[in-house]
Amino acid sequence: MATTANSRGAIQPAGIGATSGAGDAPVAASIAALITDAPVPHPTLPKTFAAMMAREFRVLGRNAPSTFIRAVMQPLLFAFVFAYVLPKIGSGFSAGAGASAAGFNFATILVPGLMGSMFLMQGMFGTTMPLVMEFSWQRTIEDRALAPVPIRVLAIQKITAGAIQAFIGAAIVFPVVYWVHAPGQGPHIHVTNWFLLVLVMVAASALTASLGLWLGTVVDPRKIQMVFAVILLPLTMLGCVYYPWSALHAIRWLQIVVLVNPMVYMTEGLRAALTPSLGHMPLWAILVALIGGTAVFGSLAVRTFQNRVVN
Amino acid sequence: MTARPTGDGSSAGPAAIKTEGLRKTYKSSRGDVEAVRGIDLDIPQGEFFGLLGPNGAGKSTTIGMLTTLVAPTGGRAWVAGHDVVKDPVAVKRRIGVVTQNNTLDMQLTVQENLEFRSRFFGLSLGTASKRAAQLIDAFGLSDRRKAMADQLSGGQARRLMIARALVHQPDVLFLDEPTAGLDPQTRVNLWDILKVLHQQGQSILLTTHYMEEAEALCDRIAVVDHGKMLAEGSLDKLLADSGAQTVVTVRYAEPVPDGLAERTGLAQRPGVTKVEAEGDQLRVFSGDPEGLLGDLVSIGAANGLRVRDASEARPSLETAFLALTGREYRE
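^ Those are the sequences you sent over. The predicted structure of the assembly is below.
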């Protein structure tokens, strides 16, 4: 190693010597060994990316109980109220006119909607909330930003991690609605096209995580609660969760307005995959919106993320 | 220029840090803020270099640019031979950074902080945990191995941050105010660690607003204020160049009349290089302070000025700073 004579030795304040005397020689030796006896790193982009994902799963695993409760509460309560309580107290409450007329119970309509709202909740929780912490005054984001990869890779990694959480969150809906319903009120679901189901679920996960990263980087962390009130709530309530999009023809203006809501395409896409006989938006429109939306919001998010990290 | 420094003692490699007219202006709606206004550095490998200046002098912004997290608005900079703007990834591979704020991963334990950082830098699972164990032992964190990062004391957190910056054997170690907010004992312990690292040839750039820290550790020091470098060199050179001498300051009960120094022959006294009168205060810079204080008292008495307070500062970075800026050092 290159060594430089320590010319400052002469002017060290008194008292330093007292702590760096012979008694601390082993400490000094072990510190020195950190440099002389160090492994040689060979970082590559895939290795760093994989290590970052491993870190996400370590944290998720550690928080598994709370993560699980967070993920299961919403579908559990939804299924309990809509597929158990309402059918029990009277069918007038339990189903939209369209569904009743078509002979479907509400649980069947609810499954795609519930999954759609889970995508949004989990995907945004998985990306937006950590960002709020990482961009707060301590800027812990700098920890990961100093990893030897371009910042955009870090952004993509965050979208990936959020998307995986969204996927798992939405998939939890299946067992919940299968178990929780009044007798005879279980959902009638039959997947005819597994490829379509997986495609829609993956695209919906990626879209919500991209949206989450974008919002997390453009919104002032102190105003993040506003995001939930002003964005998450309207997207969910007007995301065709409780009724299919086609049923909105009765309110034509609303049917058109909700087309800007990405959640509409998630729920409609799931209807296409899970309950195709119930009717849904044209498949091409759904896929264009989900995949195109991911591309648009994903690249937007990568850019805003870069601007927030490197200032 | 892109050759990786060998770190084996050959001096042929690129400079650890080199900058040319490095600038950063923050745009804001309330007017632009010029945080760094043209900084030139040339720091060879193996050097312990200090950026000394008061808070808000532009030190952290400079470190931010050198560590790729702040985009320069002018000039150029290279770390270990790599351009910080054109090839930030190559720079990040070769640097270890200890930021001023606590950027530990609070969701992970002490050991995991080190393991995952090692893995970010491409070490295998097994090598990463061995390296983590080695760092934990060397930095005296053995009994906190399983503690979550947010349960550490200030000194422990700082040690862990330094340990984390060393996982991948960086060519250049950046330390932004590493001892700010630490108690004196913890600070001295950290100094000892940094000295050992330096003796092993580790190139280090440290920023500090503590003069004694720069004096105790650094081979060379650059004094910065308001985004500019005021002086640069070894401590001895800084003291000589700044004309830093003993500064005798006397505060009188009455305002100092104009032209007092000239009238009384004080300015012509042997060794005196500068006399500053400011309000009721008289400040004399001299290379030969013997008897100066007494003279100031008698000059005052002869001119109807009663002495309130008097002090004498021997040559130090503090007097150098005073001579460079004409201002008291503000920490």
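Chain A has one domain: 44-309. Confidence is low (pLDDT under 50) at residues 1-23, 93-101 of chain A.

Shout if you want it in another format.
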